[in-house]
Amino acid sequence: MTTLFRLATAGSVDDGKSTLVGRLLYDTKSVLADQLDAVERVSKEKGLGIVDLALLTDGLRAEREQGITIDVAYRYFASPNRNFILADCPGHVQYTRNTVTGASTADAMVLLVDARKGVLEQTRRHLAVAALLRVPHVIVAVNKMDLVDYDQATYETVSAAVTALADELGIEHAVVIPVSALEGDGVVTRTVHAPWYDGPSLLELLEELPVADETTGERFRFPVQLAIRPQDAARDPQHREYRGYAGQVASGIVRVGDPVVVLPQGRHTTIAGIDTADGELDSAFASQSVTLRLADEIDITRGDLIAAAEGAPEPTQSLDGMVAWLHERPLRVGQRVLVKHTTRTVPAIVSDISGRLDLDNLAPEAADTLQLNDIGRVVLRLASPIMPDEYLVSRRTGSFLLIDPQSQNTLAAGMIRGDKAFSAQATIGLGQFWAWEI
Amino acid sequence: MTYEPLDLLSELESESIHIIREAVSELERPVLLFSGGKDSVVMLHLALKAFWPAPLPFPVMHVDTGHNFPEVLEFRDQAVADARLRLVVAKVQDYIDDGRLEERSDGTRNPLQTQPLLDAIAEHRFDAVFGGGRRDEEKARAKERVVSLRDEFGQWDPRNQRPELWNLYNPRHRPGEHVRVFPLSNWTELDIWRYIERENIVLPALYYAHEREVFQRDGMWLAVGPYSQPRGKETVETKLVRYRTVGDMSCTGAVESDAYTVADILVDVAATRISERGATRADDRMTEAAMEDRKKEGYF
After folding, report:
1. Partner residue opposite B142 with nearest CB, options A74, A287, A403
2. Once rounded to an integer, what is the mean pLDDT over residues A241-262?
3. Which residues pair with B281 in a beta bridge?
4. Domains plus CATH for chain B?
């Protein structure tokens, strides 16, 4: 069975990220002849001695002119059993904004480290973002091994430093591998220049990583997108009385007959049917788009939650979350925003900024405002209730956006009780941060 | 307890249905761009599934260059009739006839579609426009969001896009602005064909191998027809061909192929070394940034 696997790249400016991505695309034969011709032609026009694989990924005119990557680009490549969606995140300007965006949907993050430079500030920051966003797998590719003559001692030193850092941050699944993106060594095929390394190539690793099943393991959550009631418009007269609730299972599994609760109303009922255009199902699990019918007539609209009767979330009008601030205009206490949580959007007021997180030493600091690329902890008062889970438990029902009610722009990415991301296994002193009581 | 993850096509289908439902729930006046091309046919198929058993809660729109393959127009009208859809047609020909647009010297009408498209969006006050664009098609499209804001001039600003996080889409916008929504963003050409096979989706016949009078120009086989005639030394030959994309007759090329069925095409697509736009779209070959420039102006 072919499955879908999402990954995000991260790394500092000159770590060779675009070259690595170009190499993955090229060596998996995902680059077609005409696209390669274009890259060869441009490389020649620029007077480059080699074919610059980075040109494959820099899609905008300004990016090619300036030789930089401006915005997240999405790339597609496949191995026999897996299709990969790669979010290629630029490393320099607005790094948090881009890395947070890429990491939010990623099953794995591939973080590049230059073998000559080892762990840099950026490495620490990117790993912190991976931990905060709870990316299920982190692969640290120690790149430019060709420039250190594939020296084992150099690799071991970098690898040890990276592993120590991942442990500090409480990242459970970090794997370190040596590669040379430029020479293609260890990327798709196993290394030939580093015989002392007997582990998998980057692609082999990506093929083997399990797709996170955390979402199906959790309790059933179904944010309602819309009610489907065709009435007289039904194409088939037998559907005139049809009433179902369309959505995507956010977590867990649901079976016909399961007891559920509709929130925030608090009405209990059972699942009468699980429908798709292709027929009825006995059960549905996380990420399936289905339409549910309920045993009782309940007034349900978009934004309501159908949840497992047991362990359902408490509706609340107070929200405590870590937010990555993505907008040029800073966030201030008292500001009016919209909170979009699952399919529900509610007006809110920022009642407190508890502080910001210094990503270099992961220490909390006092802050009155959050600036672009800051990560901070905020408390919001909501005009009407939402039904949240902690981000630690579910990325789907634990995440939210802040939206500007005037410009309608997206201002921030939020994680409910995101401060807990670092707490469970982290060995560094987060005590102070942890101790923030609201 | 662990569960098998969804298979690739079901995962993509589920994601697309989620996107379509989100945009329709949050906005007032959606429309789906429908040309009869394979991507728009797949998108319509997904949209119909998203609201089943209710009918499609919005109309479809076709920007007619006036140079369409007649069999594709027939297919379009049949599909609209079968699903009982409301069809809006914006015609490039009307603009040329009354002088609002001028025929280009190269005869290509693809770039001329932008103005009729934007005018129709404004006239009907559409606020969400579903397009069949895929990120694997072209490098400017690779930077495109699933839900992508257009200002009141219909322009795309690729350097100032909204961040798109998790599966939380933000289609909100100010009056006069609209969003383009691309439910097929994460599909590749191969995924589209695999899905067409799995779902038994009917396509216009010219996607499959057939004999046609063609002539070669710029390395592409162009059909002989009312809008594309051989010039100078170009000679007409009868070839067994099929189309990988369906667009304006004057700039959409056929490829030599004996793929009569979806299964044949899947073998073809998996083995090909040329991208579908590179092989068959003259307009995308004009410059390195042809698509980016068109998109900035408000193109699909």
Report:
1. A74
2. 96
3. B252
4. 8-191+289-297 (3.40.50.620), 204-284 (no CATH)
